[in-house]
Amino acid sequence: MTNLPDLNQIVSEAIKTPVTQISPELAKETISPEQCSQFVRTLGSTHGLTDAQAFIAISLLFLKGACNQNAPKTMGVDIHVGDPRPIVITKYDIEYACYTVTNNILLRRFAQAMAPQISEYAEQNNLSGDLAIRLNTLAMSKGGPPLNSKEKAWASSFCQCIFDLASVTGDRLPTLLAEDFQKRFGGKKKESNKNVSKTGVPTPPRTWKKGNPQKETLGKEKSTEPGVVPTPPAAAKKRVTASRAEKK
Fold first, then answer.
1. I need a surface site. Which of 60, 69, 119, 208 has the fewest CB within 10 A?
2. By C-alpha distance, which of 42, 44, 71, 38 is closest to 57?
3. Where are the alpha helices (DSSP H) in the chain?
4. Which residue(s) pair with 202 in the sheet?
5. Which residues contact 16 (CB under 8 A, 6 or more apart)?
6. pLDDT tens-digit readout, 94-131
7. Which residue in 240, 229, 233, 225 sits closest to 76, CA to CA?
8. Spatial contact of 130 and 119, defined as CB atoms under 8 Å apart
9. Is the separation of the CB atoms in 54 and 195 below 8 Å?
10. For the whole model, what pTM was predicted?
């Protein structure tokens, strides 16, 4: 090959193109502060809660482990707003709010985006994260003291994404989180590359044809489970209608 461009020249041209322009799907993977506020407001407006009450409900559910894939959709918390009977907010309810904002039900992205605020709320109210018991057992098995109240509040699976966690809790908690993660997921067999032949030579994807490359559609993340689109529960609709009637 002749007349190949210099690599630095290629990079200079690439820098001029915003990544969100050439790969719009990447932007959907990052949750902005505005989306977090919209997430809270959506849950509140659906169930007749204030923004603060909705944030508390979300925080309590995430601290219980609602963003974990194996958590049941019926997992719920009671929110008392003055009525004799509390309002029960479930994982399904926050999935609906998540779907309204992002068109998917990937709750962990919101949990990670709101991790500092949720953990600060937990610390102020002497609450524990979803991994507090596991990490406390791990710490004591290593001959260390039990987790203190701050470490318990920040001992959540979604706190692993906080880069400066050690500056808040000290070095022990990030180490315990990493060790626990390795124990739970490190031993799983990595998925093999299906586009590698028996000789170890990568083969072209099936969607590619010589002289006629087709648009690659593999690997796209599904927004929700097949045929399942979260809808607001009927009970929530009744609460909102009653709340609006009282305001009038």
1. 69
2. 44
3. 7-15, 19-22, 24-28, 33-47, 51-64, 91-102, 107-113, 115-124, 132-141, 149-153, 165-169, 172-185, 234-247
4. 196
5. none
6. 999 999 999 999 999 999 999 999 999 999 999 999 99
7. 233
8. no
9. no
10. 0.73
pLDDT of residue 159: 96
**In the chain, pLDDT over 90 holds for what percent of residues?**
60
Those residues whose C-beta lies under 8 Å from the C-beta of residue 82, and which sit 6 or more positions away, are none
**Per-residue pLDDT tens for 218-231?**
334 444 444 455 66
Closest CA to 25 of 97, 94, 102: 102
Domain residue ranges in the chain: 15-113, 127-184
Give pLDDT, residue 230: 65
The CA distance from 184 to 135, in Å, is 12
pLDDT at residue 246 in the model: 54
